[in-house]
Give the backbone structure.
Amino acid sequence: MDVKRSLSGYMGGGKLAELQHRMTASGLVLPDILWRDHQRLAVETVSTAIIDASRTSHDVSDGVWPISRLDDLLDIDDAGALAVGSLEAFRSGVRNVWRKAIEASFPMAARSGMPIITAPDHGKKPRRLPHKAPQPEGPVQTRSPITVGPFGPGVRAH
């Protein structure tokens, strides 16, 4: 599952199809990773879904789901409504924090109603921590087949 705030950057030029292909490829290597790291295969089917948090359409025929339909994806009642409510609460909280920070930093401008423009700092790069896969213990088990494909109403992985 790949959750995107918005898919606007993926529209045009086949970028959305490329994302879907990468997700399918990830599903295809999952059995090898599980086998390599744990000497067992814990899944029989891998389904892919792209969730667009900004999507309002309920049509999922293109493999892109609105966050409001999490109930269908996760089989959890009210998951979509809770996710949408969480997003709205988060947006409201961020707006309030920004407003308070701007008012505190520029009190005269805030009182005068003058617009204040700020820009995020993109100079910092995230650090990657090294990962070492755990070594499995015990006897080696045999692998069973796995199916991979998109998730959707009435759609089965292939």
